[in-house]
Amino acid sequence: MDIAFKPSALGGCVTAASSKAYLQRLLIASSLCREETVINCNGICGEIKLTAACLNGLGADIKLDGNKITVKPINPVCGKARLDCGDSSLLVRFLIPVASALGINVEFTSSGAPVSRPLLPLRNSMESHGISFTAAWKYPLEISGKLQSGEFKQFGAMSSQYATGLLFALPIIRGDSVIRLPSPCPYKNYINMTVDIIKKFGVIIEEKDNSLYIKGGQEYVSPKELDAEGDWLSSAYLLAAGAISGKASIKGLKTGSFQNEEKILSLLKSIGADVREKDGIVSVSGGNLKGLPLDSNEIFDLVPALCVLAHNCKSGLSIISSTLHQRIGMREAPAVFSDCICAIGGASAQTDDGIIVWSNEKTVGGYIPSFNDYRIVMAMAAAALKCESEIIVTDADCVNGNSPLFLENYRKLGGVFDVINT
Which residue, of 219, 274, 303, 402, is most buried by count of CB atoms within 10 Å of its CB? Predict the structure, then answer.
């Protein structure tokens, strides 16, 4: 599917989609209870469907019905479970400890390529606590054994994902455990999100001196019914679009969230956008936007939005730092994002520690490949608002899989696009 995004001005108010990160954690916690849990949400993306299918493969009974999810807890399967985690390396990292704590032997398969991110730190830690692995660098990947309590450490850059899986698992096994976090800990807010969600299910986690202490033998107690938080990530791109042309208002976002992407508000204010919060609605409109140094540490998912904002500043240049820890396909992500800005008529270059974008305001349009990255699709939707013609993003299907309400909300706000080559 290709999408032609056209010039327009935004206006109106939409309800934020549910946060994928938050909803995914709710599903896992709910599946570890003894009783049924109902989760209310707004939109279900492909990874949530995949998470539900994998938890069902472990013995849960999860039903997705519109914006209502009913979770009946895991009744561990007999024999080996086979879980297809698609292209989600994060899901693999979450479910390895959970399955191990339940004593379920699992064969993880992949219809995508989750091995693009390493599993070795998690494997090394878990092998010293009773779990056996086949080769951790290829699929199918098999695990067996019963997770044992103790000390877990040395996770490096993927600490938040490794720790999250263990935080779900360690409370339900015998014996007390501790997770040692690095200092500083990358993406610590997502660990805080996990701890906050687990506490809603009656599980106690204590933090002291950059370590998480977990009592063994605890039980997850269903809160019966709860709501998923609104998604700051997809909302950030719509709010950035409001700063470029017109005004975007979104309700259903929690201020003070553990989602790092809430930082978009302070970044928008810093470059001169008009940001207002009233009666549970966040609104952003344009102003005298000026380029500034922008630190993207821990908000890597917002870098394409920051690049488009920098391009649309009225003056100055923006240096977007701390973006070199991910790749898109075989290329460094900053190089891909920089090339996208140049392809629509902007001026940008990759640096040793990020990206430079010169203010231009002139967007000529053109053809942009999505690189199967939904962030690029959302960024180009924002960029097209002040385009001289249109921006056509090829292979844009990924946006529906990762942020299923983005296009709907973009259109409700006044964004104009045509779907071509379906």
Answer: 303
Domain boundary residue, one of 206, 227, 248: 227
- Which residue did the predictor score with more confidence, 119 or 66? 66
Structure tokens at 55: 């938890």
Query: Is 36 or 352 the better-scoring residue by pLDDT?
Result: 36
Where helices occur in 32-133 by DSSP H, the ranges are 46-58, 89-102, 120-127
215: domain range?
A: 20-227
Site of tokens 């920089």: 338
CATH of the domain at 333: 3.65.10.10
Q: Using an 8 Å Cβ cutoff, are 185 and 159 in contact?
A: yes
Q: Please state, in angstroms and rounded to a whole number, the distance separating the CA atoms of residues 234 and 39.
A: 20
Tell me the pLDDT tens digit for each residue of 55-104: 999 999 999 999 999 999 999 988 899 999 988 888 999 999 999 999 99
Domain check: are 222 and 310 in the same one? Answer: no
340: left (phi over 0), alpha (psi -120 to 50) or beta: alpha
Residue 112 — pLDDT band, cuts 50, 70, 90?
low
